[in-house]
Structures are given as structure tokens and as C-alpha cells.
Amino acid sequence: MEGLTKAYPGVVANSDVSFRIRPGEVHALLGENGAGKSTLVKMIYGLVKPDSGWMSLRGQDYAPAEPSVARSLGVAMVFQHFSLFDALSVAENVALGMEAPPKLRELAARIRKVSQDYGLPLDPDRMVGDLSAGERQRVEIIRCLLQDPKLLIMDEPTSVLTPQEVDILFQTLRQLAREGTAILYISHKLEEIRSLCDEATILRRGKVVATCTPREKTARELAELMVGTVLTPPERSAKPKGDVALEVTGLSVASPIPFGTALKNVAFTVRKGEVLGIAGVAGNGQDELLLALNGELRTSPSAVKIAGVPVGAAGPIQRRKAGMVSAPEERLGHAAAPDMSLVENALLSGSVRKGLTKSGFIDWAGARRFAEGIVQQFDVRTPGTDVAARSLSGGNLQKFVVGRELSQAPTVIVINQPTWGVDASAAASIRQAIIDRAADGAAVVVISQDLDELLEIADSFAALNEGRLTAPRPTQGLTMDQIGLMMGGAHGMEVAHAEA
Amino acid sequence: MLRLEKRASPSRAWGMATPLLAVVLTMIAGGIMFAILGKNPVEAIRTIFWDPLFNPQFAAYSRPQLLVKAGPLILIAVGLSLGFRAGIWNIGAEGQYIVGAITGAAVGLAFYPTEAWFIFPLMVISGAIGGLLWAMIPAVLRTAFRTNEILVSLLLVYVAQSLLSSMALGALRNPQGGGFPGSRNLSQYPAAANPELIAGTGMHWGVVAAFIAVIFAYILLQRHMLGFSIRLAGQAPRAARYAGVSPTRLVILCLGISGALAGLAGLFEVSGPAGQISIDFASGYGFTAIIVAFLGRLNPVGILLAGLLMALTYIGGELAQFMLGLPAAAIQAFQGMLLFFLLAVDLLSNYRIRLGGAK
Amino acid sequence: MDLGGINPAVLIASLMVASVPIMLAALGELVVEKAGVLNLGVEGMMIIGAVMGFAVAVNTGSPLAGFLGGAAGGAILSLVFALLTQYLLANQVATGLALTLFGLGLSSLIGQGYVGIRPPLTGALPFGPLADIPVIGRILFRHDWMVYFSLLMVAATWAVLKFTRIGLILRAVGENHDAAHALGYKVRRIRVLAICFGGAMAGLGGAYVSLIRVPQWTDGITSGAGWIALAIVVFASWKPWRVLLGAYLFGGITVLQLNLQAAGARIPVEYLSMSPYLITILVLVIMSSGRGRIAAAAPAALGKNFHASR
Q1: CB–CB of A312/A300 below 8 Å?
Q2: pLDDT per residue over A71-87, tens digit each?
Q3: What is the pLDDT of residues B21-38, one digit of tens each?
Q4: Quick one: pLDDT band at residue A1, thresholds 50, 70, 90?
Q5: Whole-number pLDDT of residue C308
């Protein structure tokens, strides 16, 4: 491969971006959420056409009209989400990502062979919906490898992996690079990029702000290049913790989600003023845990107790009355109704604790005041409170949702993925707000896949693994290895690599 | 090439304008259809939309008919709109309408020929209960067994139609009717009759009930938490569960209200304009009300207007049949077309259309 | 062998005929739903197919042309659905209903001149001596070609969905349209083709009703067969062979109740004629009560509209 350059002056996503990757090079594309990384790779993969600029692949002009053209020219991509089919088998999923795939039986044999060669064990006949997140990623990678790619694009591949699985993935990628494959590695995780990548292109607001060799920079320098401002980590108080506010014992419940994970005998307690961080790779029961805690999923009465009162069989409204607020991972559609205004969305979960209804009749003026208060206090950037929730950017909507919950004077707070897909400054302010509320005496449960975030704000730490929760341990003094083991190790991956 | 771009917030202006645009487009397409049928399109449209109201020759008869036809349509459509907003699809209102008429009429006929003040109110209540219970079948099956309420409520229409003919031929047949199918005429039985309240207007108790339903639904949707829950469940079902809305309760409630209102409509029809239970009592109001609900954008006030407009197409259609020999089916197709155009232009309130090539 | 005046061989033979319309329509709808689209307009497409098939057959004198006309009628109407739901992003449930309401009106408009006419006859396929085999010959070898065609379509649908690439892509689109789009498949085009196929099949089913099953034209001739076809797709858990089973079950009940009516059973006619609908409801309940099985079998993107962002 000679080089890959592209310039693209546009208003929104990318403007005049250029960079080149050599064969066998692992090239990082670094940037915050919304910096334009996804749009850029969509252009390379032929999903989006650039307005201007050009690309070349191994010396040839390269302008893929659609993904199948990109694939036939040796460009393969591992997506962050949305590219597997739960109800189809591994082999069928792989076949869908290939041009002119062989017969399924033949393909299955090839999948076995490639998965052996690269230390990614996988059974081609299994249903994808039944696989763990790490295994699902293997499906994607194998799908790419079978096409013998010249350029492999990896979009945020480690967000779904345990630390051990990340190591194994990196071994696979290095092996590929040695064989001459160029790898475009997209991430916002700095340590990863420093350990894996040879070159890095840093994007900010759609523009290239720097090109560097990541090994020669510190993580802090990279972060400043990426964000543009110096970030301050949240302040924490070391006040002693109070009484037990939330107690969960023997919580077992089947998942209401197709291909979901059942919770198995989950138990923990959270004291007033304590932040419990729950880590885990996506799909290990995080969504179910949030539903079981906030009352959308009912259990036996004594499985969940708020301040000693059993609420396991109570619905969300009673639990709010008891002092619990919650913020689910999915902002649009779950925590907020996309087409409803911010006022209506404030009413959505605030009606109980803010007293916004009288014998069922809505106090719209009160709801509006509540919404305006949230917007002001949490610095939500919006033209007003009458706009639909979907018109807000991810970060602003998340600030609104978290702000809505935190300003209800809660005694127990449950949040799933508080800063997922949120830009760094919004993430910092959300984390600070959570810690402040804990300092005021609320018990907080933060479920997150971002280990750095948990280590930053949590007092104690536990991990979900296939619906089971490890016993919580104090965060201070935990090593990455211990955390990885708590998260369930590498799901049998290391065995294969040991053989290879 | 045309390109769609999602609006940040749904456009209110287009929300108001789309039903009007749909009506205009339907008139154009309908005119073409009438022209193909060999009628003068301008004359046909005028006969349908203008003459019933303003032609002195017909207005005296037609104007009262407007309320007579609009009453049941509005009553049923208001009930349906609540469910449609919540994503609960009761499309068997026709069946609930029939059953409400049967149960209401049965109570009235049971008292024949007693004259007492309480008979008509009792009929009203039993009509509502009949419709409600019929709607509870899909509601309970949906909540207990997750059975699709669309299919069950619709299939029950066919069952209700068989029930209707069995009643007209059997249990409710007029013993003095000389063996002809059909019940006694309730409109000639004063204690059970639903008469015209103000002469020459077409106003009867069913129309009053329709107006009350409109006001009730308006307050429910605008001011009450229950109405908010209904809207929330339709727009974002998961957010509704998060807010603490019980899907089971909502299904029972929405199907219950729409069933009861459809039953009421049936009762007022059978005791008033129709007069008796007969084999051809079912006139398709339950299905047309679906169009009315959408044409009114599921908004109670909109439904009021849409109901009147749809009633006009019925009356005008009859007139056109009489004056121009326009087939009755043409009006039915015309009404269906209206729903198509409405759904098509609805896009404008949520999306912007942009001219431009690249994706 | 006679059971209360009903000959089992005749019964089976006639249930095979009775089940053809819903089998064809349900197969078409199955493909549509496999692609992730819920088209509730089956009844409307069937009745348009019925009237178009009838009109074409009467005017050309050829039943084959009639069936082609019926399929074309259903397919054209389904294109309206495709335009509204795939390009104008209209709600699929509402659009399906509109299709049915419009179809019922339009069909009786078209059918006005055809009431009381008899269509050209479709003969049984000549199987020669096979048709004379006792019992089996009566059941299997004395039907018109559409009966065999519908069975062939069941097998073809099954094989295409299971073994071919186009079938795999179709299932993938119905399972997760965002992923299919990300892999570069034309979600909209595939869905439009599936909808069109569904319309043609429903139209064929409708034409069978008016040309063979009844055979004449009356308003509302399909009398809910389209809705029952929809129910059968659910009953079949989106599996073609189980559509066959469901259609035979329903056909059997229809034929049985008709025979009971003819045999002068004690039960009033009205109650017999509501029985197919009641049993369909019952079957739906039984199928959906099995804990979440239906939900797992249904295509995941069923009824959701697709709009590629950016």
C-alpha cells in the first residue's frame, strides 16, 4: 500500500482531513466523541461519499461507491455496533459480510481454521445472539480476516472487552500487522493507543490537529491534543460513610430482553455517601441490573431494600417515592422520549418527587420551572425547554437526564453508563455532579464499562460477569490485573494464544 | 434527487396543514377517479362537498344528517385515538359497535312495552358495557398471553357480524314482525328511543355523547397524567416503563375506553337513526372511524372536524349516487384514498425535504 | 365410509382447495415479515387480486391470464404500501389498514359490472389413471393446478429462505436493518421487492377465491381471509412448512363447518360460520402464550421503519 490521503472540506463532519498509512502499520485515529472519526471511516468504507477530496489505495485511485466495492478492494471493517444479526448463526453472519462467500459448510471449515490461526476460538454453528460481547467481536474480526484485507479498520474495538481480552486482541492485531496488513485503529483510549499504535492522527471537530508517534507522547499530552483544554479530575471528599441506604440480596431474575442475560444471586449494599462502581463487559447483565433496581423489572420483595424497606415487588413510581432515582444507559427512548419536549421529559420521571401532579392533573407551570432549573443548573445547551429531546446533542441530553435525576433530592441513585458517548468536558461535569450528590449523603450505584471512570469516582468496586456480581471491594489499591480477573478474565482466549 | 432530513422537533405548522393538504390531494385524485368513471369531476366534487350543505334543494334534508352520521364516527374515533396514541391498535371497533347495539337493544326490548324513565339510561349503560366487554377479549388476551390485539380485535368483527345476524333472526326478532328478520323498532318505543333532541338539527343523545367525549379526551390528553402516560407509551414505550406506566393497565384502559365508546355509538344508533337490530345494521362506522381518527391527527378537536368532514363524504356520496349515478363503492375508495394521502404527507411534519444529490 | 353424511376423502380433498388462498397469502406475508415489514393490508391486496383476476379472466376467457392479473393487481397495490412505508416512512400498521380499507372500496367499484357472471372454468390437472386410485386419487390427484402450485411455493419459499444468498440477505435485513445497511445491503430495495412479492401472492390467493373457490364475484368476497393469513404467519412462527399446516388446519375447519351446515347440524348457521374466526383466535392465543417463544421467532426489526442517517 502506497498511501491513503483524503481531503474533505465540509461544514459538519470532516474538513480537509489528510493522512497516510503504510502496509504493516497500526495507525491510530484519535479523537473525542463527535470529532468526526466515524464519518471518516464511513467514507473509507464506502458508506458515505465525500463532498470533495480524494483517496488512493496502494497507488490506485480509490473511490468506493458502496461497501461491497471497498471489500472487494481489500478494505475490511470491524464495527463498534450494529453489524451482527442475533438470530443468525456465526457462519451466516460471516457470509453476509463477504463478497461471493463459499457454501456454508466450506465456510464453517474456513472459520475454524482462521480462528485457530489467530487465537480466536469460535464455533461457526452457534447463534450470534447467544455469544458474549468478546465472542461477537471475534465474529466481526474473522469476517474481516477471511477476506484477506489490505486495510483493516477497527472502530472502538476494546469498549466491549476485559483487560485480558484487550491484550489478546492486541496480539492478534500485531500478528496481522507483521503479515503486512495496514490497520486503522479508532479509539479515544490513550493508553491503548500508546501501547499498540505506530502512528496517530488526532482529530478535533472534524479537523486534523496533530500527527504524532504515540509512544513518544504521554497520555496527558495526547489528551490535551484531543480535547484542546486541560481537564481537572473531579474532587472527592473522604467523609465517613453513613448507614446502609440500598441493600440487594439474592437478586435473581430472568432477562426481559431477547438474548439478554439473567441476573444470578446478585448481592451488595451501598451506604449513604458511598459510590459503588459496577464494571463489566457489555451484555453481562448491566441493563437487567438497572431494570431490577429501578423497578421496571419486579423481583421478590426482599431482594431490593431501600433504607431497610423491601421494594423488590414495587414499580418505578413507588421506588421513586422511596427515594430512588435512576438513569438508564440509553438516553433516547429509555431515559427520555425523543419526540417530547424537555418540559414533558422533565415531568416523565420528576412528577413523583417534585410533586408535579395534583390528583392526577399536571402542573405544567411547575414542570416548566423544573425543566428550566435543570437546564440552568447543569449547563444544558439548548435553545429552550420546548424543543424535542432528540434535538439535543448526546452530551447535552445526558446532562439533562442526569441533572433531572440528581435534582430530585434522592437518597439512592442508580446510573448506567453516565458518560457513554459524551464529550470529555460534559463527562467531567457529570462525574463531578454525581460525586457532589454522594457527598451530600446519597448512596450511588454507577454501572459503567469505562474502567477509568469507575476508578476515578467509585469508593468500592464490583464487576458483573454473566449475570453474577463479584463481592464489592474498596477501589483503593486495586490493580488492573485484579480488576480483569473480577470481570471474568478472557473467556478462554489465552489458551488459544498460548498454543499459537 | 430528493432527500429527507429529520427535523429536530416535529413541526406544528405542518401538523395542522397536513390534513388539509391530504384532503386537497384526495379531491384531485378522487376527481381523476370520477373522471375515469365517466363523471364530470368538478360536478362530482361539488355534489359531495358543497351541495349537501349549501344547495337549498338538498340542505334541509342533508344538514341534520351531518350530525347523525358524524356522531358515531366521532364517538368511536375519539376512543380509538387514545389507543392509537399509545400504540394499542383496536381495529375491531366495528365489532364493539355491533355488540354494544345488541346488548343495549336487548335490555330495552326486555322491558317492552313498559314505560319508565330508567329504561333508556339502563340501555346506555348496557350498551357501553357490551362494547367494553367485547373489547376486553383482545385486551385480556394481549395482557395475559401477549396475543396480538390487532388480529384478535379484527377477527372478532366477523364473529360479531355472525352474532348480529343470529340475533336479528333469533333471540331479538320481532315476534309481531311476520317472520321477517329484525327486532322491534326501538325508535317507536318511547321509553327506549333516542329521538332527535332539537328538530331539524339531527342532534340526538349520541351526538351529545360525542361532544362530551371530545371534551373529556381533550382534558385527559392535555392536563392529566393518564393522558401523558398514553402519549408517552406510544412515542417511547421503554421510556413509559421507566416512568412507571404499567403496560397492562394501559392496554386494558385504552381498549376498554374505545370499546365502551364504540358500544355507546352502537346503542345510540340502534335506538335512534337505525331504529332496530337488523342483519344489515353494521354500516362500517367502526372502520371509517379509523380514518377519522388519523385524519384528526389523533387529536380530539381534530377528530371532531374530521368526523364532520367524513360524514359529509357519506351524505355527499349518497347525493352523488342519486344525482350522478356515482357508485357507492367510489366513496369508499375515496375515503381509503384520503387515509393514504394523509399518511403520505404526514412525513412533512417530521422530515424536511431537501433537494440535493449526495447522501 | 361416512361420518354423519360427510365423506372423509371428499373432506380432505376440499380442505386442500379451501386452504389455497390463505396459504398463498400467508406465504407472501411471511416473506414480507421476514424482511422486517408488517403489511396488514393482506385483506385489501387479496380482494383486489380477486376482482382483478376475475375481471381479466372473464374478459380474456383464460383463467391463467386471470391469475396473472390477480397477482399483478395485488402487487400494484402493495407498491403503494411500499412507497408509503419505505420512502415516505409512514406508520406500517396504519398504512396496512389503509390498504385494506381502500382495497375493499376499490374492488367493489371495479367489480360492479361483474356481479352474477361466471368465470371461465379451471379444470383439474389430468393425472390419468392416478386420479382413479380409490381415496388417495380423490384426495391427491383431482385438483386444479393452483393447488399443486401453492404446495410448490411452500417448498420454494422454504428453500430460498434457508439455502440461498438472497434468502440470507432477506433474513438479515429483517433481523437488523442498521447492520445490513452498514454491510452495504440495500435495505429499502430488498424490502420493496419483498413487499411486492407479498402483494403478488396475496393477489393470487384472492384470484383463487373468485375464480375457483366460489367462483363468482361479490363484494367483500374474501371475508377476512387476509386477516386469517396474517394470523397463520404468527401461528407458523415464520416457518414456511408450518404455514402449510396452519392453512390446512384453517381450511379443514372451514370445510367442516360448511359440511355441517349442509348436513343440517343442530347448531345454528351463524355460530358455525363464526367458528373459523374463533378457532383462529384460539390458535393465536395458544401460540403466543408459550413464554416468549413467538417474540424470539419474530424477525427483530419487524414493523420498524428504516431511515439511514447521514
Answers
A1: yes
A2: 888 888 887 665 788 88
A3: 999 999 999 899 888 888
A4: very low
A5: 63
**A334, A340, A347 ranked by CB distance to B242: nearest:** A334
Nearest to C294 by CA among C230, C238, C231, C248: C238
CA gap C107, C209 in Å, rounded: 14
Is domain A26-232 given the CATH code 3.40.50.300 in the classification?
yes
Domain ranges of chain C: 8-117+144-297
- Nearest chain B residue to A341 by CA: give it: B9
Instruction: Round to whole Å and give the CA distance between A203 and C302.
Output: 38
Higher pLDDT, A154 or B138: B138
Residue with cell 345454528: C268
Q: Are strands A244-253 and A361-362 parallel, antiparallel or unpaired?
A: unpaired
Triad B341, B345, B350: Cα angle to 5°: 150
- Determine the residue of chain A that is closest to C163 in CA distance: A104
Inform me whether the C-beta atom of residue C295 falls under 8 Å from chain A C-beta atoms. yes
Q: How far apart are CA C214 and CA C37, in angstroms?
A: 31
- Whether the CB-CB separation of B337 and B331 falls below 8 Å is answered with no
Say whether A84 and C179 touch across the interface (CB within 8 A).
Answer: yes
Instruction: Characterize the bridge pairing of strands A244-253 and A263-271.
Output: antiparallel
Which chain B residue is nearest to residue A346, measuring alpha carbons? B243
Q: Is domain A244-486 given the CATH code 3.40.50.720 in the classification?
A: no
pLDDT, position A190: 77
State residue A121's pLDDT score.
80
Q: Where are the domains of chain B?
A: 59-308
Average pLDDT over residues C215-237: 88
- Cβ-based neighbours of A262, under 8 Å, separated by 6 or more: A252, A253, A254, A255, A285, A288, A467
pLDDT, tens digit, 9 for 90 and up, residues C188-203 = 999 999 999 999 999 9
Query: CB burial class (10 A; 0-12, 13-18, 19+) of residue A495?
Result: exposed
Contact in structure between A137 and A157 (CB atoms under 8 Å):
yes
Q: Do C183 and A39 touch (CB under 8 A)?
A: no
Distance between CA atoms of residues B345 and B342, nearest Å: 5
The residue assigned the cell 364532520 is: B308
Among candidate residues A365, A397, A394, A366, the one with its CA nearest the CA of residue A380: A397
Q: How many CB atoms lie within 10 A of CB B42?
A: 11
- Residue C205 has a pLDDT of 95
Contact (CB, 8 A) for B267 and B128: yes
Chain B touched by A66 (CB under 8 Å): no
**Does A47 score more than 50 pLDDT?**
yes
| Residue-by-residue DSSP string for A197-241 | -SEEEEEETTEEEEEE-GGGS-HHHHHHHHHSS---PPP---PPP
Q: Cβ separation of C182 and A67 shorter than 8 Å?
A: yes
C119 neighbors C54 (Cβ within 8 angstroms): yes
Residue-wise pLDDT tens digits, A375-396: 999 888 888 888 888 888 778 8
The gap from C-alpha C42 to its chain's centroid, in whole angstroms, comes to: 7
Is C220 in contact with C108 (CB distance < 8 Å)? yes
**C107/C52 Cα distance (integer angstroms):** 8
pLDDT of residue A484: 77
CATH T-level assignment (fold) for domain B59-308: ABC transporter involved in vitamin B12 uptake, BtuC (1.10.3470)
Backbone phi, then psi, for C84, in 5-degree steps? -70, -45
Comparing CA positions, the residue from C43, C45, C101 lying closest to residue B335 is C101
Of A263 and A229, more confident: A263
CATH of the domain spanning C8-117+144-297: 1.10.3470
Greatest mean pLDDT among A110-124, B190-204, B337-351, C68-82? C68-82
Q: Which of B234, B202, B232, B252 is nearest to B74 (CA)?
A: B202
C-alpha cell at C176: 437488523
- Ranges in chain A annotated CATH 3.40.50.300: 26-232, 244-486
